[in-house]
Amino acid sequence: MAEQTNKLIPARYIGHHAARLAQRLAFNIDGSRRTSSLLESGDTLLMPEREVLGFTLLHDPHMVYDPLDLGVGKRVLPEHKDLNAEELAALGYEFHQGRTDFVPLEVEGSIEPSTPADEVAHELPIETSEAPREVPLAEPPDPLTVLNSLSSNGG
Fold this sequence. Notes:
Elements: E1 8-13, E2 19-20, E3 38-39, E4 44-48, H1 49-53, E5 55-58, E6 68-72, E7 75-76, H2 85-91, E8 93-96, E9 102-104, E10 118-120, E11 124-128, H3 143-152
Parallel strand pairs: 7-11
Antiparallel strand pairs: 1-4, 1-9, 2-3, 5-6, 5-8, 10-11
């Protein structure tokens, strides 16, 4: 599972109307604290990466295990990289879009730039997760053990 972090990335607000920031603390892209919570179109600030770029979850189709968080952007496990959007959805992939009123900015310096996702079938941009977590399948109980325990308990 991808590690969920609150990594901040530089972003530009491109909304058509002024908006107020919900969080109390907000930072400019140079790291200084914003003095105003009002955003005008074109303003830049540091935003949570997942909020700007979106993220991917992979649900267990059998609903036994919790969803896997595959990380920021549209990502798939290496064994699923050649599947189309419908096949990925059937396997339990859920792609969360980033906010449409912000665009990520490429800034030189100590903030690492975002990496664009690859293009695949049906124009679905995806990245391959570097370290997919193997999810063990539940072992079904041995029928003889179940029958023996039922008969010994008077069932």
